[in-house]
Amino acid sequence: MLRVALLADIANYDPHQFSFINASLIKNLYDSLLEYTPDGRAIPSLAEARAIAPNSRSVTLTLRNDVRLHSGNKLDAAAVAANLRKAADPRLGKNVYPTMSIVADWTVVDPRTIRLDFKHPVPDRQVTDLLQFISIIDPAGIETVEQTPAGSGPYRLAERVVGQRIRLVANPDDWRRGEPVMREVVFRIFSQDAAATAALESGGVDVIYGGSSRSAARLKQAGDPVIDGPGPLVQVFRINTTRGPFRNDTFRQAFNYLIDREGILRVCYAGMGTVVALPWAPSSPAHDPSYAQTYAFSIETGRELLQRSGLSQAEMSNWKLVVNAGSQPDVAISQLVQATLRRVGITIELEMKEGAELTEAMLRGRFDAIFGGIGNVQKFLSRVTTNSIYRTSNNPILGEPHPFPAYVAAIERVNTTLGSGPEVKAAYDHLNKVLVACAFGIPTNTYNPGLIVTAKNVSGFTLDIDNMLVLRTTVRR
């Protein structure tokens, strides 16, 4: 048995939601059509082969013939089609829905073959990102998947005691030979990082997943292995532009300079990460380190923009910063920002939330401003639109129609520019300029919420490009 400490309970069992709070289970209960190696190379999974049409307007998938879902039903093209219907539904598609925007329709060719047709020629990487993003749910359980898992992956749910533990057992019908290695996995839910750390040090758990950077740095110094995966998130100061002073463009743009990125990385993440002013990790082709220099912390420049906004001091202070009370880094970041704003005459309250209340506020736009990480930043650029604040359609924070058409157009330009020449770089550069001008999200730094700290007798982790926890190859000696 493998014992894993988590710092928060899961929200639900729907892998299409793809929020990090569910990252411990998604790749253990479900499989995707294809996967990525840590360096971003697409490899087969449930789809054993793919063929992108020469005109880049479709992809044809050939499914494995030996996959059984947890219900015992055999995986076939009709099951994939049912998942595509869910993903393409604006109500049911969750985080996958924006990625499905490139798909016009699909055709079940035969039981093992399905073809996806696109609305326009699509870059290869955007195609593979879509296929990797869609975890396959058993069609019989799609309607109830939030409450009850309907899996396709290496483990099945055996037990859940909300707020305490989750127990998984090996799927005896898993199509991978010899996997999963561990026959049982028990997740223990801890309310505090220090308690999880103490459990690892005392031998009460074998792994901590999603602990703080500070604790990981200390445990690493003490000799415990720390695995920092290939898929960092970017911390973003998210702004609801429909509320209070944030309706003012110049007021928002002042925050490009009023965020002490270096201080945030040092104080809140023990220096583990990279300062950024754009929502891309260093591995992204759109990463541009010059922006972090251009928009370096400057009280003077920020104060000048605040004055140019035309807002009164009272108007500039008329908002609250929602804070994830269960995250030490988020609390520390918010306090740093609160202190910085006092220096320019802005006094704000910190509104503490956690659990379901926090998730509801963040995903439905029930905030003035909030810090929250975004993922998929090492993949094709438009994957950023899977994050609620960056969605180009059905945006739950900014509303519909989208208030920043220049941003929507810039994403569309990226999506429709094929090849690898200067026109591609020009599309990326244009998007970066638009993001800074719109300023509905102010990135601060990369960080890894999926840090894995292990006991010395645990090894064999499969690294996931999104830093999801993958346990099928993990072994406890």
TrEMBL record:
Which Pfam families does the UniProt record give?
Answer: SBP_bac_5
Q: Where in the cell is it found?
A: Periplasm
Keywords from the named record? Signal, Transport
What are the BP-aspect GO terms?
peptide transport
The record's GO molecular-function terms, alphabetically, read: peptide transmembrane transporter activity
Keyword hit for Signal = yes
- The chain positions of domain Solute-binding protein family read 43-376
Grouped into one coarse class, the protein's main location is periplasm
Alphabetical list of InterPro entries matching this protein: SBP_5 (IPR039424), SBP_5_dom (IPR000914)
Similarity-based family: Belongs to the bacterial solute-binding protein 5 family.
What protein name does the entry list? ABC transporter substrate-binding protein
The species this protein was found in: Elioraea tepida
